[in-house]
Amino acid sequence: MNATHIGVKLINAAPMTRAEYNAYRGWTLPADENGNDAGFLVEYLDGGKANMPDRAGYVSWSPADVFQRAYRPCTSMTFGLAIEALRMGQRVARSGWNGKGMWLGLVQGYEYNPDEGRATVFALGCQKLPWIGMKTADSCFVPWLASQTDMLAEDWAVVD
Questions:
Q1: Does 47 or 121 have the greater pLDDT score?
Q2: Mean pLDDT of 99-118
Q3: Does 124 have pLDDT greater than 90?
Q4: Are 156 and 81 in contact (CB under 8 A)?
Q5: Does any domain span residue 97?
């Protein structure tokens, strides 16, 4: 049975016609293909062995219309895409935030014992779960909770 899937990928992309892509790969354009087809060279950053010596990720070509339906710039993401980027180890921020240098990161593990001097959370059967932290404008790192505005915004971006 076929199943519907949805995917999130981190990519680099550059405009490239079908003919330019074939030339880049060292291939001859098949006679039944239009070399002037607009499209994009797509380099996958989150998996796949490099298939070109000048690239770190797996490279393929996508027709322009397919590409534009599947990908968004990392500067205009929804909250859901920002969460996926966090899960992939990226830092994210909103362009609408006023503070300089603020960003979010996913905290996978941490040292904290709320039961110092008592039974530890592990002894009580509690598991430490991941959480989202914010690097603040005054260079602190604190737990973060999304507002309704944050969740509905489409100005999320991956940051360095």
A1: 47
A2: 76
A3: no
A4: yes
A5: yes
Q: How far apart are alpha carbons 24 and 120 in whole angstroms? A: 58
Residues 104 and 64 in one domain: no
Instruction: Compute the C-alpha angle 87/103/77, nearest 5°.
Output: 60
The domain tally of the chain equals: 2
| Phi, psi (rounded to 5 degrees) for 143 | -60, 145
- Give the count of beta carbons closer than 10 Å to the beta carbon of residue 137: 12
Range of the domain at 118: 79-159
Q: What pLDDT does 8 receive?
A: 81
Residues 92 and 154 in one domain: yes
Token pair, residue 42, equals 């797509």
Q: Last residue of a domain, which of 22, 45, 70?
A: 70
Same domain, 146 and 84: yes
Cα angle: 42, vertex 47, 49; to 5 degrees: 85
Q: Is the dihedral of CA 76, 81, 87, 93 positive or negative?
A: positive
Q: What is the pLDDT of residue 105?
A: 96
Predicted confidence at residue 58, as pLDDT, reads 94
In a domain, 5, yes or no: no
